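FW: tagging you since you asked about this chain on Friday. Here's the raw sequence from the shared folder, copied in full. Didn't touch anything.
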Amino acid sequence: MKTKTELLLELWQEARIRFTNKLPELVEDDLKKKLLPCPNSIGFLIRHIGDVELLFAKNVFGSSNTRVIAKTVIAQKDTGNWTNLSELISYVNHSFEVLQSIVKKQEDLDWETIITTKEFGTKTKAEAFGRIISHTTYHAGQLSIIKKYGKA
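HL: got it, structure written out here
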């Protein structure tokens, strides 16, 4: 029988595939695409997913050695800086590894621990983890639509 941690990791990894399967389809010119009047480009969304995963590792799961400057969260808008595909892919690979590493350390009872953040209030770690799953898949859907219909 699998632990809660193993099951939740499998759920997150499967949901995140909706995002990672899009990355090999991208070329550098795609990163500037937007679907007007929406302000966010594909490059911004990729960076944002990585920023939020690192924030979750640090603030939700207590990864004290995780360093993150969540530039997309700080700016709260697309600054047009996210145009290097290999850097962005490296960043989201890193954010995945960091978050996965801290999640793997969770014991079954840890998922019932109550945490509070300014972004989404008070939740159990399990509920908070649901937020990162839905966050990534939500933006993966946006990424797909922008790639198909957006313009640089």
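FW: Residues 125-149 form the longest helix (25 residues).
HL: agreed, and The first strand starts at residue 114 and ends at 117.
FW: great, closing this out.
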